[in-house]
Write a structure and sequence with these properties.
Layout lengths: L5 H10 L1 H33 L4 E3 L1 H8 L1 H35 L6 H6 L3 H33 L5 H7 L2 H27 L3 H7 L4 H11 L4 H37 L3 H37 L14 H28 L7 E5 L11 H9 L4 E8 L5 E3 L4 E2 H4 L1 E4 L5 H5 L19 H8 L4 E6 L8 H12 L5 E5 L2 H10 L4 E6 L2 E3 L8 E5 L5 H9 L3 E5 L4 H10 L3 E4 L2 H11 L4 H12 L15
Parallel strand pairs: 2-3, 2-13, 3-7, 7-8, 8-9, 9-11, 11-12, 12-13
Antiparallel strand pairs: 1-10, 3-4, 5-6
Helix pairs in contact: 1-12, 2-4, 2-12, 2-13, 3-4, 4-6, 4-9, 4-12, 6-8, 9-10, 11-12, 12-23, 13-23, 14-17, 17-18, 21-22, 21-23
């Protein structure tokens, strides 16, 4: 029996570099053509079971806590885990064939694994159940610690200021989670041979975990040491390549001085190089892991190496995958290059010009208006005496070190709270403004996007906001939004003539079908399909919080109607410069940003809506 070291596993992977590379490429093709659409269909079906066209933020959490939602989560996790193990399974089959016969066949993985896809899915679902059962109690204890000690003040205070109780919970919950992780790791080491048994020995998925545990008696520690060595080696390899390319990319970006024309050719070369190097490095790392796992399994006999009798069937599958993937790539490229960007990309200043002035202050709003923002975005709550005040958190701890809750504070209390010095002593005169103050300052100069904040203490917030807007004559210069759909709908019922939208951090399903006038989505959840569906629904789409120049350009290229940003002046400059670029040049900028190439961002307090 062969006992490979980590270095030998990487050398083994290097000998199979071309089959591994091709297998990795074929896996990504199959992922694009078949698995990703199937996963999307599964998510859509799960959302359908909720009875709504889409779920967003809080509704997602509530759905997942329901029996139907938990089953849906379990199936989705199992499917996602299936995709995770499928790639390494392909490579294990390639390594096994080479070990048994000396043949280097890149299609061996597909031939050996795809016929067992049902068993792999069953294995993944069972593995998911075991992981949830083991990790659940420890996560629950960590959650209880959070609820007991980190809920007195707004969470943003704890995240930004990190008081002693924050570190206490971090240490305590960290210890609990570390203990859970150690237990889970030990069990996973015992199951390290289960997948190989399912794939190459014909063991039923239900029996594979016990069989693997028996086979791993006395071997877990040695495998742990090897996997740790593999992890260190793979991390160093990937990090070294990433740092090298990152340094080169950063130099190219910095030398451009935000001249987008000069960036295009450089970024095109770097983007191609990034893609090739990433494919090679991840192929080698995954291949070395597959070799180590097969070595620990004792290299099953030749029967597990697959049969070439049905290679034409899998060749057809691969050919179909290549054709579908090529079509999808062509359609995506066409969508990006031919997308009709908004006639005017709206610049929305997040809590004012929060990158240059303290957030949600008159100084910040004035700066945003001076910088040419089309809209200033702000957050509103009710004070104890019924005034509509502009403040994001539930208390003033983050920005002033004052624990008083907004709904418990009168205007007399609020007037004495300095909310500017945390940013710079020069803004020590800044106090929490009334909504009316901001509306009057922005009137006929910029629109105002009002986010309704709800912490369970709102009384008549929607009606009071509507009355304040009416009193300032700004009815045709405001929009409103909320994280909670029912509350956005309530505002719409009060003021049907207003544009009222949903603010979304994460969503599932046909979110564009919800009865709102616009969406403001997290930049991480933006997709070409969402842009396309919103266009067809004749609804506007905004994205938050976008502060990096290339990312701004990519968002505009994707077709968003507006950028919610802490840097309105920078956003205005980017939008102006990119108007002179061709569609291909814009595509290159978007691709470069997608690969992580970009300018350094500033140090922002937080990027929450």
């Amino acid at each position: 029996m062969i006992h490979l070291s980590v270095a030998e596993a990487f050398r083994f992977a290097w000998r199979l570099r071309w089959p591994f590379l091709l297998s990795h490429l074929l896996f990504n093709i199959l992922l694009t053509a078949f698995f990703a659409p199937l996963l999307a269909l599964s998510i859509r079906l799960a959302v359908r079971l909720s009875g709504a066209p889409a779920l967003s933020d809080f509704d997602i959490a509530l759905f997942l806590l329901s029996p139907v939602g938990f089953v849906a989560l379990l199936l989705l996790c199992g499917f996602a885990l299936t995709l995770t193990v499928m790639n390494v399974s392909f490579m294990m089959a390639i390594a096994l064939r080479f070990h048994v016969t000396g043949e280097k066949g890149a299609t061996e993985g597909i031939e050996a694994v795809l016929p067992r896809a049902r068993q792999v899915l069953s294995f993944a679902v069972r593995l998911t159940l075991r992981i949830l059962a083991l990790a659940g109690p420890f996560v629950l204890v960590a959650g209880v610690l959070y609820l007991l000690f980190l809920t007195e003040y707004d969470i943003n205070y704890y995240l930004q200021n990190r008081p002693p109780e924050f570190w206490g919970v971090v240490i305590g919950a960290g210890a609990v989670l570390a203990l859970g992780a150690a237990l889970l790791l030990w069990r996973l080491l015992g199951w390290a041979l289960a997948l190989q048994m399912v794939l190459f020995a014909g063991t039923p998925p239900a029996a594979s975990f016990r069989a693997s545990t028996e086979a791993m008696r006395g071997k877990r520690l040695s495998l742990l040491i090897k996997l740790a060595g593999w992890g260190i080696a793979a991390t160093l390899l990937i990090a070294a390549v990433a740092v090298l390319l990152g340094v080169v990319s950063d130099q190219l970006v910095k030398q451009s001085d935000l001249d987008l024309d000069r960036l295009v050719l450089r970024l095109l070369v770097m983007s191609v190089l990034w893609g090739i190097v990433n494919l090679v490095v991840t192929s080698l790392a995954t291949g070395a892991l597959a070799v180590l796992l097969m070595d620990k399994a004792g290299w099953p006999d030749a029967r597990g190496a697959g049969s070439h009798g049905r290679i034409w069937q899998f060749g057809f599958v691969v050919a179909a995958g290549v054709a579908i993937s090529a079509l999808l790539v062509a359609v995506s490229a066409r969508d990006v290059t031919q997308v009709q960007t908004a006639d005017k990309v709206e610049i929305i200043a997040h809590r004012g010009a929060a990158g240059a002035r303290p957030e949600n202050t008159m100084a910040s709003f004035e700066k945003a208006i001076e910088d040419g923002a089309d809209w200033v975005e702000l957050d509103v709550q009710e004070s104890a005496d019924g005034e509509v005040v502009v403040v994001h958190d539930s208390d003033f701890m983050k920005i002033a070190g004052n624990p008083i809750k907004v709904w418990d504070a009168t205007m007399g209390d609020i007037a004495g709270i300095d909310i500017g010095s945390w940013f710079d002593p020069a803004y020590g005169d800044q106090r929490t403004p009334l909504l009316a103050d901001v509306l009057l300052a922005a009137k006929d100069r910029a629109g105002v996007l009002i986010e309704l904040k709800y912490y369970g203490h709102n009384d008549q917030l929607e009606r009071r906001v509507a009355d304040v807007v009416a009193s300032t004559g700004m009815e045709d210069q405001v929009m409103s939004m909320s994280l909670k759909l029912p509350l956005a709908e309530k505002m719409k019922s009060l003021r049907p003539e207003w544009n009222v939208g949903l603010l979304s951090s994460a969503s599932a399903g046909r979110i564009w079908a919800l009865d709102v006038d616009f969406l403001a989505v997290n930049k991480a959840s933006l997709t070409s399909r969402l842009v396309r569906e919103m266009r067809q629904a004749k609804k506007k789409l905004y994205v938050w919080t976008v502060n990096e120049p290339l990312e701004m350009s990519r968002m505009v290229s994707m077709g968003v109607d507006g950028l919610i940003t802490d840097e309105p002046a920078l956003a205005r400059e980017v939008v102006s410069q990119r108007q002179d670029l061709t569609s291909v040049e814009r595509l290159v900028l978007a691709l470069a940003n997608r690969l992580g190439i970009g300018f350094d961002e500033g140090d922002y307090r937080d990027d929450q809506p």
